[in-house]
Amino acid sequence: MKPRLTFCLLLLCGLLISASGSQAYAEPEDKIREQQLEKAMLQQLYPVIRSSLQDIYHETYPSFGCERILSINERTTMAEDDYHASPVDAMHGASYFEITVGLCKGSGEKIELRFKNDTPTAQYYLDLFHVR
Question: pTM for the full model?
Fold first, then answer.
C-alpha cells in the first residue's frame, strides 16, 4: 500500500472511531479534518472507482458524483479455525482493509462499491458492488 494512502486511511479510521466515542458532536475543526481526510482517501481511490464503474456499466468515461466513504473495516488474514489461514493473498497475520464507497450515477442510481487490499501488492480492487 502506498505510504500516503496508509497514512490517510489510519487517520480517517482514528477520527471515525473517536467521533463515535464519548463526544456526541465533533468540534468544528475535527469535522473539517475528517472531511479533508475523506476527500484525500477518495482521491487516492479514484482510479479503482473509475475502472470499476467502467467494468460494471461498460462505459469508457463513467460519470458519477456524491462520493462518500460509508465504512472502513480492518481485517486480519489469519483465521483461528483449526489453524488454517483465510483464503486471501496477503501474508498470514497481516492486516488489510475493506472500504465501502457510496456514489450516485447521473441516471439517479445509487451504487455501493466495496474495495479490498488483501493482495501481495496491497492494491485496492473491487470486491463487490450493490446497485440501489
Answer: 0.70
- Express each pLDDT in 16-67 by its tens digit: 545 444 455 556 899 999 999 999 999 999 999 999 999 999 999 999 999 9
> What is the C-alpha separation between 64 and 25, in angstroms, rounded?
30
CA 34/CA 11 separation, integer angstroms: 9
Nearest residue to 1 (alpha-carbon basis) of 49, 50, 53, 41: 41
110-116 and 95-105: which strand pairing? antiparallel
Which DSSP symbol is given to 69? E
Give Dmax (Cα) for the chain.
48
E strand or H helix that includes residue 84: none
Nearest to 97 by CA among 79, 111, 115: 115
Tell which residue, 74, 71, 132, has the closest CA to residue 104. 132
**Residue of 30, 31, 112 whose CA lies nearest to 71:** 112
* Rounded Cα gap, residues 132 and 122, in angstroms: 29
CA distance 23 to 113: 30
- Higher model confidence: residue 20 or residue 106? 106
